[in-house]
Amino acid sequence: MTLRQQLQNRNISEHGDRQITVECVHKAIPYGNACRELIHTADALAATPFAWSLKTLICYDIFHATEKILAGSDDPVPHFISILQDNAELLKAAAFRTEAYTQMPSQAFETLEQETGSHYGNLFNKFDEEHYFDEPLRLLRTRLERNRFDFSFMRGKRALDAGCGAGRYTFALRSLGFEEVVGLDCSIEGIAHAQQTADSCTMDGVSFTQSSVLDIPFADASFDFVFSNGVLHHTRDMQKGIEELLRVLKPGGKGFLYLIESPGGIFWDCIETLRAVMRDVPYESARRQFALMGVPAHRCFYILDHIMVPINIRSRPEQVEQMLQEAGAVSVRRLTRGTDFDRIERIHRQMPFCDVKYGVGENRYFFEKP
Ligand SMILES: C[S@@+](CC[C@H](N)C(=O)[O-])C[C@H]1O[C@@H](n2cnc3c(N)ncnc32)[C@H](O)[C@@H]1O
Questions:
Q1: What's the gap in Å between 31 CA and the centre of ligand 1?
Q2: pTM for the full model?
Q3: Which domains does the chain have, with CATH numbers?
Q4: Per residue in 199-216, pLDDT tens?
């Protein structure tokens, strides 16, 4: 069976994969039972605004506390289990109150792209300047430098940022040296925000267009560089997306692709467990709760990004390599370095318990078109 067939066989409905599979609860993993118990406890709550707030609250607490134990040097497993158990207890204690509130209507979307686009468009729209302009530039420069990307390649070249969100990396690519950068995304809100930013700043050579990465509205061989950072794993057909990237790339052109990874250790098992906990919480309710708690916009994005998006498919490195090769890419190279904050960099530095914490680390790839 080809990878495309395997992906198509996943139970992805018109509204994404909300029948979420949490792999760790089916495996003999020491924290699997605690994850299962938490999900069952969350499932037992009635669908009310109070329950949604509570779930969002524990989502924040579990994500934040897990991040802390991943940054430490102790064995993370016993700590992770107690975080899950404490929060399951909290949900149980509050369960009796949830019947008292009426249900708030949740937002209906006509297509998966609209839902995904609205999710991200509403998360990206309140970033401050540091997190919109400065941080992405720093992160991208470090990722490219530490993996020996030739920056002189950028001079006079045209790049595509496929799935640009609100454009933070589109501006970073232009600042790093590309002559022209086009940002493309299905998000109406994301593109409107990006366009507004472009109109109000002095940087030239940046433009935006609203479209799907599965049907890129540019002719074959239109770009010298294609960049897709954390996008195709949220679509129905990753292989088609990769084929589109290769189609619009010129012969001799280069590409950068980031796709989320499997196996992914506690980092991804935590996110998958929280996807199951949060699957009936309306987007607006979660965002409002985070805002009430004073969580800054970039943190809100970082936490809710994968937890609330309809499709979130993790790939093994060999699957990504197979997809790239099937689409005609050559010189496919997995990046082994990242920023200090990246999982792959922590693995590179052989920090303690890396396997159990992070699995194989991010799938970031360079590739070329022959
Ligand atoms: C995690 S965000 C990444 C955004 C940007 N690359 C960045 O790193 O800031 C994923 C983006 O993919 C976009 N996206 C998802 N499916 C898409 C599709 N079929 N076509 C175009 N964009 C899509 C979403 O709207 C969202 O902006």
A1: 32
A2: 0.92
A3: 18-101+266-308 (no CATH), 115-262+314-368 (3.40.50.150)
A4: 999 899 999 999 999 999
